[in-house]
Amino acid sequence: MRHIQRRIALLALPALVGSILVATGPAGADPTGPSATTSRSQPGDRESVRLVQIRLTGADMLDKVAAAGFDLEHGLRRVPTGIEGEAVVTAEQVTELTAMGVEVLADDAGFAWSDQADGGIGVGAAGARAVQPSNHQATVRIARADWFTTKGQGFLYVEARTTEGQQADPIVGMQLENDSGKGTPFGFARTMSRFVDSGQYMFHRNLFKLDTRPTRIQVTSSTGGVATGVVSNWLENAPPPLTANPSYKSDFVDGYKHPQQLYSRAKEIARQYPDIAEIVYLPNQTNGYQRKAQAQVGGTGQAAVVVTSAAWGHEGGNDITVEFADRPDANLPLAVEVTGKAVRVLLATDAAGAPASTATEVADALRTRSAGLIDRAHPYRTNEGTGIVAPTAGPVALTDFLDQKRVGAPEGEVPRGPATIPVLRIGKHRDGKKPGVLIQAQDHAREWVPATTSLESAERLVHNYRSDRETKKIVENTDIFFILSNNPDGANYSFYNFASQRKNMTNHCPDASADPAQRNSWGVDLNRNYRVGSGHDGYAGGSTNCVSGTYQGPEELSEPESKNIIWLVEKYSNIKFMMSVHSNGGQLFWQPGAYIADGRITTPRPPLGDEAFYWQSAARILSQVKAHRETVVTPENVGGSSDVLYSSAGNVREELYYTYGIYAFGWEVGGSVYNPGTGDWQGGSFQPEWTGNPELVSGHAETMEYANGIMEMFRVAADWGRDKKDPTSRLIPGDGKYRGPVDVRFETSEPATIYYTTDGSRPTLESPRYAATEFREPGQVFHVTETTTFRWFSVDSAGNIEKNYDPTKKDKRNNYRTATITIAKK
Ligand SMILES: [Zn+2]
């Protein structure tokens, strides 16, 4: 019964998404335009690029900069003055960024919110969520007031809204005060920061350092609105982690692993633990760690020719040479001689016997007369190729550049060609009846910590299964799928050739971007290649520029790596949880994660029950991360990713949640730890030193603490699968006679969505859903002015329905809830 209900509850969602996509997503309406692929400087070899700290004014500028092909993903954070982060750029690109209005920050110290006030003294007290203002004329609402401590330092995070926030002239300001413990007056007034995104006012928010926990806060707007709220705990008082058991085994991963190491260990685990583990091979091979062989002859001017082999480099392309030869006689036509793999272009001559072939003519001849060795040849970038080609000193060898290893690359050869991705499946009962959890790591090649974090989690499962009761419960009650690297081609390129590689290695670029100096910018951003809220449907944050860090691909699901994910969740429909593991930034995300920039129209917000379940799960997961070394992922970095960071069109989370009803998290592990030495938050990097500073930035420490969080996610899934308990709910205040208008709201015993009617009809899954006042806020408040009867039922995150009511058919018991608010006549 429960599973049937779950399916019904979820069916409403795809329908809703579908209609929005059709109504508002004109094909090809990408704001970056079709002409985005233009010539500009590119990052060349690793030696010439660097990471710089930058600040952008907001999402609009981020879109513009990403559309121009800059590589700005990850480590991005909202700050009061815009968005800060790192860019992987050349010196020349720094100049271009500056010209676009991007501020290049002088140092790379971690970002910090302002901390202007100290909270005085007082005692802590656990509190409920923020209090709703009871007066409907009130213009200020408090969404969150959270207290947490990390490494000996207390912090207060506040999010508050004014209903006049969009007003431009004058802009409405907000002030925050807090008490110093129970019964003490408000004080320590300071100004809050206004958060605007894509032209829309979002809310005001700040993280303040405080030495003592306040009990209540008060927020006042410059137009006289006021709200007070109770301070809640964020990740305080977490239960002990699994690692607290002295016999629990952990710390298995001893360094970064390239894909061959990850996959071979996955297969070994399946061999060593056949009763609880197996390998599932994904059906679509990758496009391969391979490149066509290339040469760029004659510089970068009008006489330059870019030559690309038909065969992959390792399949013969690397053996090809091209030569442009001069001849002594006058008035000779252009000719091509092919001897084995040697292609010799005999340049035409003019009446004086001088070379007379243009770059365009030579390129055409190479394409059509090289006996199939060369299938791509063209002038350099956007040149017209009108220059007269000069003879070469001799044959020029083509190369795929893959044997050019970066400094520090691991020993050994990388297998060339397409890869088959193994999925490590762990669970005692792999029969499709236990809730499935998909851990997908390293969609982005340079993110090495997500792979080690996932492998560490797998090791902990198999090594502790027999000896640790909690681990045994996980393995017996879940069905876990690990993709330890979902981008093996790109990951190999990151390990062996270009450390900052983000995308896969598929080159979809037109001639203007296909010369070898651009090779480090080719590829598709696998986390922009999906179908829901995609760039192809007009959502923001995916680029049509093939050299952009967020290139979305020529079409939705163009890449084998994203097709595989769809195959997996369709074949194993018991997968109900997913974590897309990225780095770095200290963020935990869910839906909505994308919006259409014009009007800031997001993908549909999850129902309140799902939203509450996400928050509850996030708190469990992040508490276990904190238990390792006090790393706190702060509440402003948790939630719908487009609400707290930016829009990422076509990401995997939107696809899996809206199409398949999977609770789909996105994680930015690593970085962002509080450094008591400097009093600032310390940013991280994609490949921090493995041992590094174990208290700050260290691949090892990040692997261990975030593996704690993944293990907790398994427990969340196991609990969800065993949840047979119906939710309960109530209307506050309930049934009764009132002397005038009453404000009422619903409350549920656990994360649950309420469907209700006020017109006397029986509630169904088509009835209105009880919603948040606004996003990231608690449930709405109804202002009841006339006698009204509410009829409702609630559904929890596992699909259990209150009182076993069946909303899908006429139920004689009418087992829904009901309450009448009677307003006395005057
Ligand atoms: Zn990533």
In short:
The chain has 13 helices and 39 strands. With 826 residues, the chain is α+β, with helices and mostly antiparallel strands.
Shape: globular
Radius of gyration: 30 Å
Tally of extended strands? Answer: 39
Mean pLDDT: 89
User: Uncertain spans, ≥5 residues at pLDDT below 50?
Assistant: 1-47, 107-134
Strand order of the largest sheet: 14-22-24-23-25-30-26-29
The description of the largest β-sheet is: 8 strands, mixed
Percent helix: 10-25%
Distance between the termini: 48 Å
Ions, cofactors and other ligands present here are: zinc ion
Counted by DSSP, the helix tally is 13
Would you tell me the structural class of the helices and strands?
A: alpha+beta
> Which band does the percent of strand residues land in?
25-35%
Describe the model.
The chain has 826 residues and is of the alpha+beta class. The chain contains 13 helices and 39 strands. The chain has an 8-stranded mixed beta sheet, with helices on both faces. Strands 9-10-6-5-13 form a 5-stranded mixed beta sheet, with no helix packed on it. Strand 5 and strand 6 (153-162) form a beta hairpin. Helix 6 crosses helix 7, helix 6 crosses helix 13 (699-722) and helix 10 (608-629) crosses helix 13 (699-722). The chain is globular and about 110 Å long. The two termini are 48 Å apart. Residues 1-47 and 107-134 have low confidence and may be disordered.
